[in-house]
Amino acid sequence: MASAVFILDLKGKVLISRNYRGDVPMSAVEKFMPLVSEAEDEQVPLPCFTHEGINYLYIKHNNLYLLAVTRKNTNATSIMLFLHRLTEVFADYFKELEEESIRDNFVIVYELMDEMMDFGYPQTTETKILQEYITQDAYKLETQVRPPMAVTNAVSWRSEGIKYKKNEIFLDVIESVNLLVNSNGNVLRSEVLGSVKMRCYLSGMPELRLGLNDKVMFEATGRASASSSKAIEMEDVKFHQCVRLSRFENDRTISFIPPDGDFELMSYRLQSSAKPLIWVEAVVENYAGSRVEYMVKAKAQFKRKSSANNVEIAIPVPDDADSPKFKCSSGSVSYKPEKSCLIWKIKQFQGGKEFIMRAHFGLPSVQAAEETEKKPPINISFEIPYFTVSGIQVRYLKIVEKSGYQALPWVRYITQNGDYQMRMPESIKSGKQTAGY
């Protein structure tokens, strides 16, 4: 429950504000920037703090601060979520949310702030519903527009009367792998962040039921022994507001009436102990500061029936490297001097395969002793279609609508890199000569 919401520039000047409850003096905003500056000088600034009995909660977006103030001991998470939803709605309306877009759209910003919060309580926050009666055409704002049924309906994220000639729904299960390996080859961090994204083109007000190979569900229904090897245990599961949480808590059924168009149905996290999908080893030989050579080996550590697409391995090189020469058993290599790295691209990397790349650079002899500075890690990007690290599977996707039409569900699985890094090993100082370039 917020008493007032302010949008400020980076200097703390109020661009626009809305007083919802009147129990906090609007002058309280004048103390915000000095308090933030003081916190930044002393420590990492917190997104919320209290001063003289007033709670300040804020987020920074581009060149703006979005600030909510309240005297109540309220749920800070709900207010922070509202501020983030406010930025998303503004960005959907204005394409870019920055100081100029706020100044150019005062009328619409006021309209949106009025509709999205009432007496300090969040209301409609779905852009598609808001766009039905708050438009960006000034002349339309002057007319009396009747709010859509979704605003007063229990299903506030979907309008009634939606019709499609062809009823389809697309479901993407996307998993991103975060990995950090130290210079000795030990895995320091490994986790999988997953999301289930949907594109919904369904008529009417359909109810969907989604079944996954959820370990908790199998255990609850007494099927753990038969299916436990294929079941997964998800952590930190977050759902779109359309999901009936009580139903999920009771029998693990994901039941919902979907928004129209694109949305993220759920997200989850898994602590992964599996082998890294793409393993990269590098040997660096420094020849008395006159040149440096790299031998890089990449191996795809997943099943042969799968392939990683558009693999890019970014290997850091000294800032002053020159005269690049490359050889690789697959793909292509290019030098990016502006990024001080070389990029090894492999368009298709089949599971179980192993490729080698060699690189040679000239180095000014002045830099010979500079071995102590920290080296950036190797960064790896990739995408593996029809594959998930966790083994998550969509067991069924049922669509029920009172008109009884037939709908086509499409399911796709994708695994991609997240923050996927391997630290560089120490250079080997060598005086021997090598050939082959």
TrEMBL record:
Question: What InterPro entries is this protein classified in?
Answer: Adaptor_comp_med_subunit (IPR050431), AP2_Mu_C_sf (IPR036168), AP_mu_sigma_su (IPR022775), Clathrin_mu (IPR001392), Clathrin_mu_CS (IPR018240), Longin-like_dom_sf (IPR011012), MHD (IPR028565)
PROSITE patterns with a match to the protein in the record = CLAT_ADAPTOR_M_1, CLAT_ADAPTOR_M_2, MHD
Provide the primary localization. Answer: membrane
Q: Which Pfam families does this entry report, sorted A to Z?
A: Adap_comp_sub, Clat_adaptor_s
Source taxon at top rank = Eukaryota
Compartments annotated for it: namely:
Cytoplasmic vesicle, Clathrin-coated vesicle membrane
Gene Ontology CC annotations of this record: clathrin adaptor complex; clathrin-coated vesicle membrane
- Which of UniProt's keywords are assigned here? Cytoplasmic vesicle, Membrane, Protein transport, Transport
Give one GO biological process term: vesicle-mediated transport
Member of which family?
A: Belongs to the adaptor complexes medium subunit family.
Q: What is this protein called?
A: MHD domain-containing protein
